[in-house]
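User: Show me a protein chain along with its predicted structure.
Assistant: Here is one chain, sequence first, then structure tokens.
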Amino acid sequence: MDRFAAISTFIAVVDRRGFAPAARHLGLAPSAVTRQVAALEEHLGVRLLRRTTRSVTLTDAGARYLDRARRILAELQEAEAFAQSEQLRPVGRLVVTAPAAFGRLHVAPLMAEFLHRHPEVQGELRLSDRWISLVEEGVDLAVRIGHLPDSGLVARQVGQTRRVVVAAPGYLARAGTPQAPRDLLRHDLIRFSGFDRPEDWHFAKDGVEERIPVTPRFTTNSADAAICAAELEGGLTRVLSYQAAEALRAGRLVRVLDGYETEVRPIQIVRPAARLVPAKLRAFTEMAVETRDWNFG
């Protein structure tokens, strides 16, 4: 027995003062309405209605149950309306994860603007360079940099970045500007350990790959620290272009070896595959596409 359907049928019989009028209202056969109410009475173990050839009236137990049944249906309808509203407008909790540096620089401002635009959304931003399982950790969306494995996630590309070699103008004036990857062997190098194997930097030109052994003077797992050391003329460093974008715009750093950069890495917003996508997920992704320029050449 569908208990909610049976409750709805019972209320319809009371409101329409009979089984036949209730059947017409519900679009059911009178016999189906009779079976629904009988099944509900059997389930409850009480008689809800008194039936005569001319009228249908409530028993004392039916009168008490009717009030509670109306409240149950009202709460169910409210719950369904709330669930359906998630498909129509952004509401509820939105959990987003992003790489630490990119999240701090770019996703956090986007989240703040999104929450201002959609006051019925409560946001949470988790910054981590670890690729997590969205479903297992209760995350709605992830901003990820790089090519994705075949994971069953749905991805929307919202930008791109690449690895670049940068240095301060003062350092290049003193030590010279490298013209080819092999020239790096004569320079002070600052290694950001977020990518690459410890012993080399990887380059490519015209389809030909080249790996340069690296003996860094300074190694750090922080892109910010590597960029700061480069700005202080400590040598050349290799980071993702978005990480150095502000320093490059300000002229504190310049790019070298442009022709030897490896392929671009997509910046993507990903979510678990689902047939019904809440409006808050669609709206956040569209806002990123429409309001952000995350193409870092």
